[in-house]
From TrEMBL:
Protein name: LysR substrate-binding domain-containing protein
Stated family: Belongs to the LysR transcriptional regulatory family.
InterPro entries: LysR-type_TF_proteobact-type (IPR058163), LysR_HTH_N (IPR000847), LysR_subst-bd (IPR005119), WH-like_DNA-bd_sf (IPR036388), WH_DNA-bd_sf (IPR036390)
Domain of life assignment: Bacteria
Taxon lineage: Bacteria, Pseudomonadati, Pseudomonadota, Alphaproteobacteria, Rhodobacterales
Domain HTH lysR-type: 1-60
Entries under PANTHER family matching the protein: GLYCINE CLEAVAGE SYSTEM TRANSCRIPTIONAL ACTIVATOR, HTH-TYPE TRANSCRIPTIONAL REGULATOR
Record keywords: DNA-binding, Transcription, Transcription regulation
């Protein structure tokens, strides 16, 4: 009669642990479930594998013989599992935008690697929103208001973007006096196409009447479009520094930045249970805060 591998593994764990309670903890089931599995194996094959007493479990002669045969096999399987899979327990795959990776994440990752050399981090720079439920990504860093259905998000930082325009555009169309007056201008979106709508939402402004210009998908190209007078843009200071210094760009408006419009670490709740993920997020919050 064939013995199921699951039954053999349960027997192996109980024999090694010495108690149903410890075996249940290791296998992630209840002690009652372990007891039922062992009893089913004994009944199915007509052998008593353990004797039970107030002092716990002890192997019978049949149990000792079976343990002798299977323990080496399971030790080999477990060693193979550690060899091929254990390193991935300390690996994190992150999805974020190229802009955030370039402006903030690369420097932070260098410091993180020094502090936590055993945790491997791989970064995918895509402006699309990955599906954390179906794709092999542990964590996404997203720019928004932190509300993502079915996800847990942790606030990381709220770096102020610079609202820029060309001097010629403002001379022709007028400088906005407050955020709502930006709606009189054409707005150039970022790679996600959502930066302006989120910014207006964070400020409590109805932006349903906004007019948008081309979406370039690359901040360097957006800078060039702003210089040419195609519209206003919200951009990181690292991309507009040269344009502001040369006078090709000017700040269109100085406004207090809404802290809710920030970068968030977003993941499924289960992903935060991974020690490497929780360690990484806690470290990022401290490093970027």
């Amino acid at each position: 009669m064939t013995i199921r591998i699951q039954d053999l593994h349960t027997f192996h764990v109980v024999a090694r642990a010495g108690t149903m309670q410890d075996a249940a903890h290791e296998l992630g089931v209840t002690p009652g479930a372990i007891s039922q599995r062992i009893r089913a194996v004994e009944d199915r094959h007509g052998l008593r594998l353990f004797t039970r007493s107030k002092n716990g479990l002890s192997l019978t002669a049949a149990g000792l013989a079976l343990q002798s045969d299977v323990s080496a096999a399971f030790a080999t399987i477990e060693a193979a599992g550690k060899k091929h899979f254990s390193s991935h327990r300390n690996a994190i795959r992150i999805s974020t935008s190229a802009t955030f990776a370039h402006s903030m994440l690369v420097s932070s990752l260098g410091r993180f690697a020094e502090a936590h050399p055993r945790i491997r981090v791989s970064v995918e720079t895509e402006d699309r929103l990955v599906d954390l439920r179906s794709e092999p990504v542990d964590l996404a860093i997203r720019h928004g208001l932190g509300t993502y259905s079915g996800m847990r998000s942790e606030w990381l930082c709220a770096p102020e973007l610079v609202l820029v325009a060309s001097p010629a555009l403002l001379e022709q169309s007028g400088r906005p006096n407050d955020p709502s007056e930006c709606l009189r201008h054409k707005l150039l979106p970022d790679a996600t196409g959502k930066d302006w709508s989120i910014w207006f939402e964070a400020l409590g402004i109805d932006a349903s009447g906004a007019t948008y210009g081309p979406q370039y998908g690359n901040d360097f190209l957006t800078v060039k479009a702003v210089i040419e007078g195609q519209g206003l843009a919200l951009l990181s200071d690292i991309y507009v520094k040269e344009g502001l210094a040369s006078g090709q760009l000017v700040r269109a408006l100085d406004v207090t930045w809404p802290t809710a419009f920030a970068y968030y670490a977003v993941a499924l709740a289960d992903s935060y249970e991974k020690p490497c993920v929780s360690t990484f997020v806690k470290w990022l919050k401290k490093d970027m805060g």
